[in-house]
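Our consortium's second objective concerns turning raw sequence data into structural hypotheses that experimental partners can test. To show how far this objective has progressed, the report includes one record in full. It was chosen at random from the queue rather than selected for favorable results. The single chain below, 135 residues long, was entered without modification.
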Amino acid sequence: MEGTTDPSSSLRSRHPEMFKPMRRESPRGKKRTVPMECLCLGFNRTGTASMCAAMEMLNIRGWHSLLFLSTNIGDCEMWEEAIENIFFGKGPRFGRPEFDQLLHDFSGVSSDTPAIAFAEDLIEAYPEAKVVLVE
């Protein structure tokens, strides 16, 4: 039809992260490759995606739940373990060694769920990182 645009092309231009190949590899055993510079932690719908985009403009590779849910599906099992440990007492709380595996190649976190559940743990694990609390 003349004059119409393909809806997938519009979505692709607005959310290119949704069109990246799925990474099913587990983060277990990964080593941190870059220092953690910034933790931007907020609840859903508080601008964490915009803050992640801002960090990217500053050359801080940001981890956001959209990335986790769309391309890093292999991380789900480890995040699930972290949730079970902190909320259901199934094991020790995650610390720097575990977060380094989950976030090994990211120098920033700008996220709501699930990272907001670990705000205190992330701040403790990365005392050198700048912290932005989003309300």
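The partners drew two points from this record. The longest strand covers residues 38-42. Residues 65 and 113 are 6 Å apart (CA to CA). Both points have been shared with the crystallography group to help prioritize constructs.
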